[in-house]
Structure formats: C-alpha cells, structure tokens
Amino acid sequence: MKAPKDEGVPPAVTAGGAAAVAEPAPAPPRERRGRERLTPPSWLALTFLLPALVLLGFLVVYPIVYSVIRSLFDAPGDSFVGAENYTGVFQGRDNLIAVRNTAIWVVVAPTVVTIVGLLFAVLTERIRWSTMFKLVVFMPMAISFLASGVIFRLVYQQDPDKGVANAAMVAIHDTFAKDTSYPGAGPRGGDQPVRAEAGGVVTVDSFAAGQSALVPLVKVKPEYLPQDAEPAAQPPPAQPGQLSGTVWFDFTKGGGGEPNAPNAGESGLPGITVEAVRDGKVVATATTGADGTFTMAEVPDGTYTIRLPADNFTAAYRGAEWLGGTLITPAIIGSYLWVWAGFAMVLIAAGLAAIPRDALEAARVDGATEWQVFRRVTIPLLAPVLMVVLVTLTINVLKVFDLVYIIGGGDPNASVLALEMWVESFGGGNNQGAGSAIAVLLFVLVAPAMLFNVRRIRQERK
Amino acid sequence: MSTAEKAAKVPSEAGGENGAAGAPRRGLAARIVGRVGGGAAQVVLVLIALFWLVPTLGLLVASLRSNEDNAAGGWWNVFTEPAQLTVGSYSALLDKADFVDSFWNTVLITVPATLLVVAIASLAAYAFAWMEFPGRDWLFLVVVALLVVPVQVALIPVAKLYGAIEFGGFQMFGSVTGVVLFHVAFGLPFAIFLLRNFFAAIPRDLLEAARMDGGSEWTIFRRVIFPLGGPAIASLGIFQFLWVWNDLLVALVFADTEAQPMTKWLQSQMRQFTGNIDVLAPGAFLSLIVPLAVFFAFQRYFVQGVLAGSVK
Predict the structure, then answer these.
(1) CB proximity B214 to A under 8 Å
(2) CB-based contact B62:B88 (threshold 8 Å)
(3) Which of A129, A291, B91, B307 is most buried, judged by most C-beta within 10 A?
(4) For residues B221 and B229, is the Cβ–Cβ distance under 8 A?
C-alpha cells in the first residue's frame, strides 16, 4: 500500500473532469487514531457489495452449479443418466454438424477478424481521414446481431437482381468472362443437319477445308439474344485451308422461311465458340460474329465435324449460393467479420499508437525494410494486444447465437453449439438435460479464457 | 553510417516534409514509392469503407421501397428510379400495435437495466477499490472470472427459478422485470471490473481528505467517487444500453408476448423472409437507429469502454 502523501489535494486530481469536488479543507495532522478512523468497517463494505453479490449469486453463480447437475439428468429431470447427455452432443447428424461448425467458427472467425483488424489499423496510420474510416468500420458494433442478420439476409439473396453480393459477383464475372450464352438453345428435333451431344451441338456431316457449314439452332430464348446480334448471313466463302460457317437462330418471326437456311428476318447468334473436331480432338476454333458467321483460318487437310461446346449453352453465371449447404457458415462468418472487424481495428490501432517510435526508428536506421520492421518489431510489440483481441473474439464466437439463428433461418447446416443449446432447451427440443450439457460444454470451452483473464489481472496487481 | 547514407540524407532534408514528419532519411525513390503506396492505401480504404456502408445502405433503401418493387429488383434500382422511394412501409409498420408495444418494451427493459447496472456496479466497485474487508482480492478475482460466463449456462436454471417466483398475479417468468434482472446480473461483472479500475485510479489523498472531514462512505461515494467516475460511468452506461437494446436470446427465453422487445418481435416475423421485407426492413432499421444515434453521439466513450474492458 502506498503511503499517503502530505496534506492538501494536488490540483491535478480533477483531471477526471469532475467539478463537484468540494474545496479541500486542510487535512488534520495524521495520527494513528485518525488513520484507523479512516478505514470504514467491513460490514459497511458488505452493504455496498450486497446488491451485486445477491444478483451475481442467484443469477450467475448458482445457475452454473445447477446446470452442471442438471446436465447429468434426463429430459424430464427425474433420472440420473451420467455422461449420456455429453456423449449425445457428439451423436446424430445435426449435432455433429453443430460441433463441426463451432470448430470452424472458433478456428476461422477470430483469426480472420484479427488479421483484418490489423490490416485496417496499419492502413489507417497512413491516411488523414482515419477517424472517419474507423467510425464507418466500427459502426456495425452498435447494431444488433438481429439487425445485422436482416441486413445480410438481404445482401445474400440468391437472385442477382436482388442480393447485392451476387449482383456484384455477376458484374465482376461478366467483366472478365465470356457472358454470351444461350441456355436452352439446341437443334430442332428429327432428321436435321445438327444434333445435340454432351450438352453441346455437333454437325452430322463432316466438312473439309474450303467448305462451309450451316449450324441452325432453335429454342433460343429472346432474353439471351444479345442486343448487337445482326440478321444471319450466308457463310463467307471459305478460301483453301479455311473452314467457314454460320450459326444462327433458325426461326423467322411470323412464320415462313425455309428451314436450315439463314433466311431474311432470322438472327445470327454472336459470341458462340465453334470447334473443328476430328477423332475427338479439337484442331481449330473460332467465335461467331454479330451475324453468326465464323471463319477458321488454316485448317489442316482432312474432314471435321463442327462442334459448339456445351459452355455455349450453360445458364448464365448467377452468383454463389450463399445460404446453401456448403457456403452458409462462411457466409455467416463474413457477416460476423463485418460486425467485429472494427473492434479488432480499434484495439490494435490503440496498441500501435502505444509502440515507442524509437524502436521503429532504430530498426529503420539499422537498414531494415518496412516489412522487416513490421514483422520483427511491430508484431512482437503488438503481441499482447493481439492476444487480448483473439481471446475476446474466441469467447464471443463461442456464444454466437443471433447471427446464426437469423441468417441460417433454422437450417441445420448452419447450426452451432450455442444455437443447438437453445433449440434443445427452448426451441422445440424439449430436453433441458441435453441443453444443460451443451451449456456446460460452452462454459468449459471459455474456462481457459477465464484463467487467462484472472492471471492477467493478478499480474497487473503485482 | 556509410557515406552513401550520408549522401542520401541531404535531399531528404531539403525535401523538408520527411524531416517534419520525423521519418528517417529516405532516398527520393523510397519517397516516391511511399507516395504511391499511400495513394494505393487511400483507394483501398475508400473501397473498404464503401464495402462497410453498402449493407446498411441496402437495408435503408429496401425499407423505403414498396414490397412489389423489392420483389421485382434490387434496392440499387432507386438510383435510376428515385420515384420508388416511399415511407409507406414505415407508416404501415407504425400502425401495427404489437410493433409499437415491442418498441416500448425495449425501452422499458433497456433503461432500467442500464441504470441498475450503473448504480449497483458503482457501489460494488467503490467497495472493491477503496474499502477493506476480508477476502477482497479473492472476491474481485471471482468477479473477473465471471466476465466470460456464457449466458447460455444460466438460461435453464434461471427459467426454473423465475418459474417459481409468483405472487399476487405477478409472474417473474415472462415479465419485463425478469428480463431486466437477468441483464443486470450478466452486466455486473464487466461493469464492476471497468469501474473498479477507474475508481482505483482516483488519488488516495482526495478520498482520505473527504474521510477526515467526517464524510460518511455514502456521502463520499455520492459526492466524490460518482462525479469523478463520470467518463467511466458514461462508457459503461452506453455499453450496457447497447448490449441490452440489441439482445435477442435473453428476450427469446424470458419475455412472453406481452413483454417482448423489438428484437423478439422482429424475429417472430423472420419466418416469411422475402415475403415481408416491407415489415422486416423498416423494423430492423428502426431497431438499429437508436443504438446508432447513441453510438455517434457518444462514440468517444464507447471506444473507451471497448478499450478498457475488452474481455467479455
């Protein structure tokens, strides 16, 4: 205990911002009796503590004990079943998925959030509007998981015309990839010059260099016909060593027209990949132009069938199935990142600001590159902060309920232990024995964090 | 230092800017790389900021469109057709009595839960910081240990406990009171931890002076500690407010339909997602606008709270 200083209150004590401190009377000379009188009796301390202790005792400590005992009894709570409820957590398909998902959450979410937070904290050191940026990224921390869940249900909507995630994915995909495709299109039924094969279309006849092929297609849906499609043209005359042809929509609006010939009023199909194939090997390829014509330069001697491979007819890219079986947990973790990245960033940024400049400068003067400074000086000095962030996030992730419940919408593929606990006990499972076992399991999983905290506090005290 | 580095020092000093920033000597090339790198960081950060804003913007815009428009296409269509914007969904929602009730329930739960935590925790924190009693340090470590207890562990036992409390037509289970007390209990460890650390930093002289003046502990607590603890109490209050306002799980278990807060009401509407975006989007937005306003008004305290008690 620090010895009390001399009389008088130093003016700096109002640093807390309080104006309410009464003017300090000069302290009387210190005596033993006065010192004793200054220490309030223990019973008074207990009255100050009483409300907190009562609430903590009844609503936090007692429940822990009760849950442990309850977890050893069956669903109605009548008969003792030992560890059965605990082994039950690891049995059955839904339970195992919940265990697996919880493991994924605990391993992935804290790490990703911490790395992203570190990245943001480092990047914001270089800009002037860092306060603004931090405010924006930190903002979701104030929003409930329920509202975040609704927000991300909207973001993850499957239809790229509604969900912004898929809209963005489709936009990016279409910028870089071939986007003309004619789902559903194919040859006319019956005896025709072309036939369907393995999802694509091939010509029945074979063609040699110097010849032209006609590839009529029907069943082209108007919405997939590109704006720039022009009326179908006759194949350009093929020079020796070349192969040419036309791929077109063999359908005349209003009827009429001769089948299997590019008549007036019929549209070319641009953007189709055409291959010349012999013995299953592709020897030349071309892409159709706006009027549906193509020319393959330099085709070796021999005869070939013309093939339009299947990717001309696959459905257009529609984005990812975010809330489907495989992606649902990563998708929910993504929304968790959106909520918690600001937390990691703010804590790490405070840690960064506390790093002594001298240490960094010394390393730079010694000729270290920026990356070396970051890797060898900044990160080790940040380690305690990173540890606190990771531990906090891990505890939080184990308890994550609302996000999974709202975005997962009851899909067992998304379930985690914290949700399973609620479902078993209150959400229709009607088995509070099993629910208690899951709750105790969660408690045991956070126990290391408990010890971490207690040790940290004891060290700080010393 | 090599001669090459000495030579490099001259232009860097002439440049002035580096010297002012206290950066070590760097060559011209390094400075250009730094500038370009800085520019790239700017662009990346602008994109990230947009990325962070778009989901909430999407909710806001969706809440301002009719159900038909939302079913027909994405919210970004308003950029080409601003005429789609309407407050129709909001006025329809505010006409629903059960939604309005749930809003008031949220207030009725959040305000007492926040005030009680502040009051009870500051009393306890004062005792931990400035009073002496046997087992003080040990008891405080218990409180620290309780910081991370998951609420899940208390749901079943407290439900049973509340079920047994019944008198004069009042039932604890399902009531606002039950929800409030649960939130207070689970808010206490963090609150006591945060406030004790703050109170303990108050200069000893100040307290002893007040004690020697003959002030009772109660007076000292009220007149000295509580006012001095202002910033910490503000942080705690905001934290607790947001935590309780945003809770779903506790309400789901302990609040019946009469006492349900907004979160529980909205959750009950989730089942027909996409069919009722006109209810969910404005509802979710109304539920987040209050915490957001609190956050922007008091973000300094909020950030301090996060920094002070990061383990919860």
Answers:
(1) no
(2) no
(3) A291
(4) no
Number of domains in chain A: 2
Q: Could you say which DSSP state residue A80 is in?
A: B
* Interchain CB contact of A362 with B (< 8 Å): no
Distance CA B292, CA B238 (A): 11
Final residue belonging to a domain, choices A313, A348, A382: A313
Q: Are residues A215 and A132 located together in one domain of the fold?
A: no
Query: Where is B130: in which H helix or E strand?
Result: helix B97-130
Strand segments (E) across A218-254: 243-249
Q: Are residues A329 and A447 in the same domain?
A: yes
Closest CA to B235 of A365, A414, A16: A16
pLDDT digits (tens, 9 = 90+) for A371-410: 888 888 888 888 888 988 898 899 889 988 989 998 888 7
The number of beta carbons lying within 10 Å of the beta carbon of residue B251 is 27
B250 touches chain A (CB under 8 A): no
**C-alpha pair distances (Å), A277 with each of A201, A208, A304:** 12, 11, 5
d(CA A63, CA A70): 10
**Domain extent at residue A241:** 194-313
Backbone angles phi, psi at A360, to 5 degrees: -65, -45
Measure the N-to-C terminal CA separation of chain B; round to a whole number of Å. 49
Query: What residues of chain A, 106 to 135, have a C-beta less than 8 Å from chain B?
Result: 120, 123-124, 126-127, 132-133, 135
Only one residue has tokens 């502990």, namely B217
Full DSSP string of A97-109: HHHHHHHHHHHHH
pLDDT tens per residue, range B225-251: 788 888 888 888 888 998 899 999 999
B270·A406 Cβ contact <8 A: yes
